[in-house]
Amino acid sequence: MPEDAKQFPFFILFLAIIGEVGFFGFVLFFFSGNIFWVDAWVSLILYGTLRAYSLFWFNKYHPEVLRRRLSLKHALKKDIVFISLLGLLFLALFIIVSLDGGSYRWTFVPIWCNLMGYLGLALGFIIKFISLKENSFAAILIKIEELVEHQVATKGPYAIVRHPMYFGYLLAFFSLPIALGSFYGLIPVFFMAGLFVLRIIIEERFLLKNLEGYAEYAQKVRKRLIPFIW
């Protein structure tokens, strides 16, 4: 069996999920000082459930996808910079929503907005999951050596926009602060969106030059990120 086709042990994925959700929970409750913050608990449970399902599903049916996404080997340096900036903005997002939604309540978010935030968070995850099922090479990091076996994905959400996984990410990112009761939390998300737009422009230049068939696909599917808009 090829190395990248081996499944991760169950306990490794379980610990990874616990650690990830635990870290997010620590940041939220530490900066809010409110362990009884209901929106945070609901969001963490929703995120943990969706994250666990995604990881265990891919580990069972496509373990090579997980290993490919977790590896930084051969990744372009500018992609590492992108990931780093995105991580800093994500941390800023968590700190702002903790202070606003969990502690000081600088902005008022109606309950129906909270519910829409939960829905958007779930839909973003589902879109990301489906996109990765259709295109196992979909990732924020571009790895040059993988283009040899990479084929252009044209089905499912890729028939609507060229970067549906990024759309899923952004939908989840925009929904998260609303689910957590903070409109101020949208501020770093707009910077994230700008990063993704820049990322898409750079990535498309690379794919048009290096991935066979991508130019024809780009002519057929005109929108990059948002259906009917861009």
Question: Would you kindly provide a brief summary of this structure?
Answer:
The chain is mostly helical and 230 residues long.
Helix-strand pattern: HHHHHHHH
CATH class: Mainly Alpha
Q: Write down the CATH topology.
A: Four Helix Bundle (Hemerythrin (Met), subunit A)
Q: How many domains, in number, for the residues?
A: 1
Distance between the termini: 42 Å
pLDDT < 50 runs, ≥5 residues? none
How many helix segments? 8
How much of the sequence is in beta strands? under 5%
Number of strands: 0
Share of helix, binned: 55-70%
Mean pLDDT: 90
Rg over CA atoms? 18 Å
CATH architecture: Up-down Bundle
Form type: globular
Question: Which structural class is indicated by helix and strand composition?
Answer: mainly alpha
Major sheet, described briefly? none
Which short descriptors sum up this protein?
mainly alpha
Give a written overview of the molecule.
The protein contains 8 helices and no strands. It is mainly alpha-helical. The radius of gyration is 18 Å and the shape is globular. The model has no long low-confidence stretch (mean pLDDT 90).
Question: Which helices and strands appear, and what pairs or packs with what?
Answer:
Elements: H1 10-32, H2 38-61, H3 63-70, H4 77-104, H5 111-134, H6 164-179, H7 186-210, H8 214-220
